[in-house]
């Protein structure tokens, strides 16, 4: 089981930028599909994007591409999510997850190992 630890969240002003990190331990992320998700209170966890070991990215919504960037550094077993032009609606708990390599899309049910999340709060 891959253990994942997210960091980089906090309280931000709208219009700013941040980069979330997700570091894996016990096992490298290299073979895994990796994904970022977010969840707000009372709502289901939703996918943002998933990235294969080779860097191919699948987005849950193409409209996210303009402000969100997902990258991975396999050598560091680290996954990143950069968010630009932050909006109050980006406020959520952000989670990273590791899944099987043969099916890589930002669907919650395709991921087995999850971090505990990092909170992002954006004020206007």
Separation of termini?
A: 39 Å
SSE topology string: EEEEEEEEEEE
**Main sheet characteristics:** 7 strands, mixed
Mean pLDDT: 95
How many strand segments?
Answer: 11
> Which segments are poorly predicted (pLDDT under 50) over 5 or more consecutive residues?
none
Helical amount: under 10%
Helix-and-strand structural type: mainly beta
Percent strand equals over 45%
Q: How many DSSP H or I helices?
A: 0
Radius of gyration, CA atoms, in whole angstroms: 13 Å
Q: Based on CA inertia axes, which overall geometry fits?
A: globular
Explain what this protein looks like in three dimensions.
The model has no long low-confidence stretch (mean pLDDT 95). With 124 residues, this protein is mainly β. It has strands spanning 3-7, 10-13, 18-25, 33-39, 46-51, 57-59, 68-73, 78-83, 92-99, 111-114, 118-123. The chain starts with a strand and ends with a strand. Strands 2, 4, 5, 6, 9, 10 and 11 form a 7-stranded mixed beta sheet that branches. A hairpin with a 6-residue loop joins strand 4 and strand 5. It is globular. The chain is built from no helices and 11 strands.
What's the topology here?
Elements: E1 3-7, E2 10-13, E3 18-25, E4 33-39, E5 46-51, E6 57-59, E7 68-73, E8 78-83, E9 92-99, E10 111-114, E11 118-123
Parallel strand pairs: 2-11
Antiparallel strand pairs: 1-3, 3-8, 4-5, 4-9, 5-6, 7-8, 9-10, 9-11
